[in-house]
Design brief:
Blueprint: E1 10-15, H1 23-36, E2 41-46, H2 58-75, E3 83-86, H3 92-100, H4 106-111, H5 113-125, H6 129-134, H7 149-163, E4 169-172, H8 177-194, E5 202-205, H9 234-242, H10 263-271, H11 275-286, H12 292-318, H13 321-349
Helix pairs in contact: 2-12, 2-13, 3-7, 7-8, 9-12, 10-12
This protein binds adenosine-5'-triphosphate and magnesium ion (MG).
């Protein structure tokens, strides 16, 4: 390992620093990151440029950066093996975004299903969730014209993020796959016209491609307020599980219940390692021999067992924030060196090396 010709392939993936990480992040993405740290050289990016309402709440982003890195350390990502990177401290990301925006048509962006869905959500809900909260949860409806351009172009920046370290693999939740397809197209187009610079990366979706929210919404998401966070304490987890959305057709414990499509059982499948218990719970639920409360109690217990070691490690890093910053500093510095190498090749491929002899 480390010798010429034996270098590991690279992973680039990331998250926006908008708050605490949740079970959806874990099952959709983090779990793969953890597993692949040895096999690949990993770049884990905190995408602060991509918080498109960044300027509205700078303090929240600053806290978010530390929060995400702390969660990463808590789940066991290892900054000795992997690089923790702050996007904006590698400003080459902004440069590459500008250059790659030459290669992506407006129509291509508009057809991007992730962007489309998120844009609709923004328009419905209003730009800033914080703002809605400050207003006592009043629905803030804004027009498309008020959506920052940065929101519209964030997929291009994701393309630049992935291509910067010339990543081969991008482990993400299902919602991010359209961006990877776009990355492949850009890499192909670039290489064909200007010579080989970028590998065409593959996406890799986690064991649970899209974890539902505790409210039964199709996706657990910070902005939907339907998360169980990795840092939630045991009582919070219990409380959230107890009010989880379950089979709405079931009125009493003796009614036969639906297991398929029931979030409580989806979480059992995803996080309860006691397979026999889960099989038994499902069986009794289907035949009306168990109440929702007991199924939920078992789920809360399983989740708390799963989260306990994460909480323990988190406590350590919360009381040692200097270690968190050091991990970020080291990873970011390395990523910057890698980025500078890539940019030399990109600039020369595009003829921007005007002053070279
Ligand atoms: P959120 O989606 O909670 O608002 P975010 O948009 O800031 O958070 P992303 O950067 O979109 O977070 O997510 C980081 C990674 O976690 C991505 O790979 C994403 O696909 C994955 N992910 C997020 N939520 C889920 C989920 N509910 N199920 C599976 N994967 C998820
Ligand atoms: Mg998201």
């Amino acid at each position: 390992m480390g010798e010429a010709g034996e270098e590991r392939q690279r992973i680039l993936t990331g998250v926006r620093p908008t708050g605490a990480l949740h079970l959806g992040h874990y099952a959709g993405a983090l779990e793969n990151w953890l597993r692949l740290q040895d096999e690949y050289e990993c770049f884990f990016l905190i995408a602060d440029y991509q918080v498109s309402d960044h300027a509205d709440d700078i303090e929240r982003v600053r806290e978010g950066v530390i929060e995400v890195a702390t969660d990463w350390l808590a789940v066991g990502l290892d900054p000795e093996r992997s690089h923790f990177v702050i996007e904006s401290l590698v400003p080459e990301h902004a440069e590459l975004t500008t250059l790659l925006s030459w290669f992506i048509g407006l129509g291509r962006l508009e057809r991007n299903p992730t962007l489309k869905a998120e844009m609709e959500e923004l328009e419905e809900r209003g730009m800033s969730f914080e703002e809605a909260e400050r207003d006592g949860k009043r629905q803030v409806v804004r027009e498309r014209g008020a959506v920052p351009v940065a929101f519209f172009t964030y997929p291009i920046m994701q393309v630049a993020n992935i291509l910067m370290p010339r990543a081969h693999l991008v482990p993400v939740g299902e919602d991010q796959m359209p961006h990877i397809e776009m990355t492949r197209e850009v890499a192909r187009r670039f290489n064909r016209r200007f010579g080989y610079v970028f590998p065409e990366p593959d996406g890799l979706v986690g064991r649970v491609p899209r974890l539902v929210g505790i409210d039964g919404n199709a996706k657990m998401s910070k902005s939907l307020n339907n998360t169980i966070d990795l840092k939630d304490d045991a009582e919070t987890v219990e409380r959230k599980v107890m009010r989880m959305y379950t089979d709405p057709t079931r009125l009493r414990a003796t009614d036969p219940g639906h297991v398929e499509g029931n979030p409580v059982f989806m979480y059992h499948d995803a996080f309860n390692p006691d397979v026999e218990e889960v099989v038994d719970l499902k069986d009794r639920y289907r035949t009306g021999r168990i109440g929702d409360v007991e199924v939920k109690r078992k789920l809360a217990a399983a989740l708390n067992t799963f989260l306990d070691p994460i909480r323990e490690r988190r406590a350590h890093y919360e009381s040692n924030p200097a270690e968190v910053r050091a991990a970020l500093a080291r990873g970011t510095e390395h990523a910057r060196t890698v980025a500078q190498h890539t940019m030399v090749d990109v600039r020369s491929a595009l003829g921007l090396n005007y002053l070279d002899g």
